[in-house]
Amino acid sequence: MFLGLFLIYWLGKRFYVLAEKYNQNKWLYAILGVVIYYVGQIIFGFILAILNEFFDFNFDFNNVAVNLLGIPIGALACYGFYKLLENNWKKIQIQPIESIDDIGKDIDEIGM
Question: pTM score, two decimals?
Answer without folding.
Answer: 0.75
